[in-house]
Amino acid sequence: MRAVCFDGFSARPVLRDVPEPAPSPRGVVVRVEATGLCRSDVHGWLGHDAGITLPHVPGHELVGTITAVGGEVRRFSVGDRVTTPFVCACGTCPECLSGNGQVCRNQTQPGFTHWGSFADLVALHDADTNLIAVPASLDAGAAALLGCRFATSYRGLVHQAHLQAGETLLVVGCGGVGLSAVMIGAALGAQVVAVDVDDAALARAARFGAARTLDSSGLSRTEALAAVREAAPSSGIDVSVDALGREETAALGILSLRPRGRHVQIGLFPSDPVVPMAAVIGGELSVLGSHGMPARDYPGLLDLVTTGRLRPQDLIERTISLAEVPDALVAMAGDRSAGGITVIDTGS
Predict the structure, then answer these.
(1) Rounded to an integer, what distance in angstroms lies between the CA atom of residue 180 and that of residue 148?
(2) CA-to-CA distance for 138 and 199, rounded, in angstroms?
(3) Model-level pTM?
(4) Which residue(s) pair with 108 in the sheet?
(5) Are 285 and 307 within one domain?
(6) Which domain CATH number covers 73?
(7) Residues 110, 225 within the same domain
(8) What is the rounded CA–CA span in Å between residue 172 and residue 249?
(9) 251 and 319, same domain (yes or no)
(10) Inter-residue contact 242 to 172 (CB < 8 Å)
(11) Centroid of chain to Cα 245
């Protein structure tokens, strides 16, 4: 099969022929229909993730059709159209048994712990625990994006921060994750304030539901905080999301909150940041992480998508082939402000 591989961290990936995978006893092999190009793939390629063994095939957001099934799989069959969370749970550890497979201690992650979906075929483990059936009518790009960006944003807002209709949501950083959060917040009835340094990103945020947008380029922390407070209603910011992963963007999200507000950290940091803990203590703020979502919690998200209240496919700005992935991965690594979402059509 064809796969995009890299032989060293930061070494240019190449498209080459590699052996096809076989299913593990509790796993399946899926023929990839579409897969997202995510900034997490860049982090893995640059060597920021422990556990990647070289040579490696990245890719973790996907939709496709099962082509082979392990002997212990009971809920899925060859021919089923499926997606999966990027964190695949074991189903038996204490975290999984408590319903928190997204932090499974034995988790596997396509594109990180084993070869991923930038290929014709991908192996997925513990299928009965992790696979999600996808209707034939659902757009392939929309289905692929449910594996990481939308699931992580949805869990952060709904299951972690418990965002309510009528509350005010601040989203800092309007890349793929941030725009997912904007779109989900608007679908849930929140008033969304979006912050970025790029006019095009802010225009996208407005198009996908942000009531107010704020260009923070050139502003100090004090100035950006004042601008957010001016843009927010008098009741203040109820929930904030840092979708970028920088010390300044996380601080802006936390410091913008009203007392007892909730901050959700989704953006990944290259190193541990300094967090304004005095504000957290003084305001009794909640600082929450979101590390994906277990398959069992997907029905609420899928309902928003299948009823049309949430349209992930509208965020897709580029569809590329497997042959174009090496250039796209390198380009994304060089531009943290790159906006819109790229999806790979493996059939092209």
Answers:
(1) 10
(2) 31
(3) 0.92
(4) 88
(5) no
(6) 3.90.180.10
(7) no
(8) 6
(9) no
(10) yes
(11) 13
